[in-house]
Amino acid sequence: MAETDRSRAFTKNVKRIVVKVGTAVVTGKDGRLALGRLGAICEQLAELNSDGFEVILVSSGAVGLGRQRLRYRQLVNSSFADLQKPQNELDGKACAAVGQSSLMAYYETMFDQLDVTVAQMLVTDKDFRDKDFRKQLSETVKAMMKMRVIPVFNENDAISTRKAPYKDSTGIFWDNDSLAALLSLELKADLLVLLSDVEGLYTGPPSDPNSTLIHTYIKEKHQEEITFGEKSKLGRGGMTAKVKAAVSAAYGGIPVIITSGFAADNIAKVLNGLRVGTLFHQDAHLWAPVVDTTSRDMAVAARESSRKLQALSSEERKNILLDIANALEANEKIIKAENDLDVAVAQQAGYEESLVARLVMKPGKISSLAASIRQLAEMEDPIGRVLAKTEIADGLVLEKTSSPLGVLLIVFESRPDALVQIASLAIRSGNGLLLKGGKEARRSNAILHKVITDAIPKTVGGKLIGLVTSRDEIPDLLKLDDVIDLVIPRGSNKLVSQIKNSTKIPVLGHADGICHVYVDKSCNLDMAKRVVSDAKLDYPAACNAMETLLVHKDLENNGVLNELIHALQASGVTLYGGPRASGKLNIPETQSFHHEYSAKACTVEIVEDVHGAIDHIHNHGSAHTDCIVTEDSEVADIFLRQVDSAAVFHNASTRFCDGFRFGLGAEVGISTSRIHARGPVGVEGLLTTRWIMRGEGQVVDGDKGVAYTHKDLPVLKRT
C-alpha cells in the first residue's frame, strides 16, 4: 500500500478531535479578531459536532486581542502630553484577562448562532500537577461531550505564577500548542489538528522558494534537516513550538496534523483522509524510508543502469523485452484488478468521461501490449548501428553510429498502457527512464511498474525505470538538465505548456490533437462514411481522433453531406457547426475551431475546395494528423504536399497515426515538433548519434602530413 494511503487511513476511526487555533489565525495583522476566518472555523466545528464528533477547541489569541483593546483604552485615557512620552509596555497578564473575555464572548455569540453550546475552560500549568484535577477534568469534559457541548480551552495567563509566561518553556506545558498536545493525551483524543498561518511544516522558512512542504514528518530524518524561520510575531510559539508539541502527542499515540487555518475547509479535508498539511504519527518511519531518494538520485541511478543495459549484447536486451511481455501476461488478473479500482475511483470522483475512457484497460489490452513488445524485441537492434562510414584518410575511418539519448523523463496523464509502451521503447533503445503518471492511474501505474522492473535482470537493475509518485517532484526533475536529456509530456495542452515553460531540457511532444478529415467532391461515398466514422468513433478520446470534418461545398447539394451527418448522428456523435455549416445543417455553432473534444462530438464546416481545406487546417489545426478522402489523385497530391502536419493521409483514417500501426513496435508519444522526431515517436526518435574513429596513429600537425580522401565507404548490414 502506498505511503499516502496508510498515513491517512487513521482518520476513518476518529471520534474525539482536539483543534488548536493559533493567534495568527484568530487575529488579523491589526490585532483585531479575524471574524470571517474564525467564523469559518466555527462553522466547521459546529458541523463536526452535529455529525457526532466530540470536538475540543484550544484557542490562542487572548493576549493579542487584549493588548489591542488596552492600547485603545490607553489612548482614550491619555492627554496629548502623555502621548508625547515613551509608552510603557502593557502588562501581559492584564492583556490576557481583558482579551480572554472578548475572545470567549465572540465564541459564545458565533456558536450560539450555529445552535451549539460552548464552555470556557481556563487552566494553568500548576493545575496539571494535581492528580485530582486531572481526574476531574476528564470527568467534566466527558459530561460535556455527552451533551454536545464544545469546551474552549486556553491557558489562564492572567493568573499564571510563572515569572515569564511568554518565554518560559519549562513545566508540564508552556504555551497553547503544548497545552493542546497535553489535552489530547490526557483526554484520549483520536486526532489533534494544529491550525497555523501556513500550509504545514516546510523544509525551511515558507517564504524561501526552495522550501518544500513536508507531508509526513519522520523524526529520525527531519529533526536535523529543518531550518525554522522567525518566530511568530503574533503568538508565543511559532512553528518550532508546534513541531515540539506535535512530536510529543504523536509519540504518545495521538496522530497530529499541522495545517493552515486560512483555508475554509481544511479540518474537513483532514477527516476525509485527504493529504493536507503535515502529518505526525508514531508509525511514520514505517511508511517511508528514513533516507529519501532525491530526484537527482533517481535520475543518476537511471543513467547508470542505462549504461549497464547498453553493455549487454543485443540478444540479452531482446530477452529482457520478451521476459517483460511474458510477465505482463502472467500478471494480467492483478493488473486488471488494480486498473478496475482506478476506474471506479475516477468515476466516483466525477472525472470527465473522456479521461475515464483513456484510463480503462479493456479486455485484450495486456495481450495487445505484450504482442507489441514482442514485435519490438524482434526488430533490428537500434543501438550501435552504423549509419554512415567515411574514409577520412588512408587508414583513418570514421563511422556515424546510433546511440541512446541517455535519460528520458515522460510525464503522462490517464493512460496506464502508455507506461508499458514507453518502458519497452526505453529498454529497446538503451535509455534510462523516469515516469510520472496521472494520479487517477496511480494503482495501475504502480503494478505495471513493478511487473516490468521485476523482469529486468539484477545486472542492469530495476532503477533503470524510476516511477515518480508525487507531483511535487516534477519541478525538481525539470531542473536537472545536466542529468535528464529529453522530456516528453503526454497530456493536456496545459500540461505540455507548463512543462515547456519550466525547463531548459529539450521537450518533445504535442499540445493538442486537432485532427481533420476533408471529404472532397470526388469522394467515394461509402469510403467517406467508413473513414469519417472510424476517425471519430474508433476511440474518441485518442489524440488522433477526428475533431473537425471539412466538406467540399458541392457535397451540400448532392446529398453526400447529409449522409455523412446522418451516419455520425446515428452513432451518437454530437455535432457543432462552423459559421457556414451551422445554419445549413441546423446545428449549434462551435465556439472555437481549435477545440479537442476527446469525446463523441466534433465540428463540421463547409469549405470551397481543397485549398480552403488546407487553409482551414493551417489556421485552426495542431499539425498532428490530417486526412483527405478523394478519388482525384491530383487533388490528393496537393493535399499531401501542402498540409504541414506530422502525418497526412489519403483515403485512410486518422486513427492509423500510431507507433504500433506504423510498425514501430510502440511509441512514447506523437510529436508535432519539427526538430528531431516528428509524428509517432518510436525507437528511432529516442536515439542520437555518436562518431567512432579508427586510425593507425595519425596526427593533425597543422594538416601537413594528412592526405584527406573523404571517401564514402559501404555500410555492411549487421547479421
Automatic annotation (TrEMBL):
Pathway(s) the chain acts in: Amino-acid biosynthesis; L-proline biosynthesis; L-glutamate 5-semialdehyde from L-glutamate: step 1/2; Amino-acid biosynthesis; L-proline biosynthesis; L-glutamate 5-semialdehyde from L-glutamate: step 2/2
Pfam families listed in its UniProt record: AA_kinase, Aldedh
InterPro entries in UniProt: AceGlu_kinase-like_sf (IPR036393), Ald_DH/histidinol_DH (IPR016161), Ald_DH_C (IPR016163), Ald_DH_N (IPR016162), Aldehyde_DH_dom (IPR015590), Asp/Glu/Uridylate_kinase (IPR001048), G-glutamylP_reductase_CS (IPR020593), Glu/AcGlu_kinase (IPR001057)
Catalytic activity: L-glutamate + ATP = L-glutamyl 5-phosphate + ADP; L-glutamate 5-semialdehyde + phosphate + NADP(+) = L-glutamyl 5-phosphate + NADPH + H(+)
Record carries keyword ATP-binding: yes
EC numbers for this chain: 2.7.2.11, 1.2.1.41
Domain Aldehyde dehydrogenase as annotated: residue spans: 298-568
Domain of life: Eukaryota
Keywords, alphabetical: Amino-acid biosynthesis, ATP-binding, Kinase, Multifunctional enzyme, NADP, Nucleotide-binding, Oxidoreductase, Proline biosynthesis, Transferase
Domain Aspartate/glutamate/uridylate kinase: 15-260
Function: P5CS plays a key role in proline biosynthesis, leading to osmoregulation in plants.
Family of the protein in this entry: In the C-terminal section; belongs to the gamma-glutamyl phosphate reductase family.
Protein name: Delta-1-pyrroline-5-carboxylate synthase
The species this protein was found in: Brassica napus (Rape)
The organism's taxonomic lineage, starting at the top: Eukaryota, Viridiplantae, Streptophyta, Embryophyta, Tracheophyta
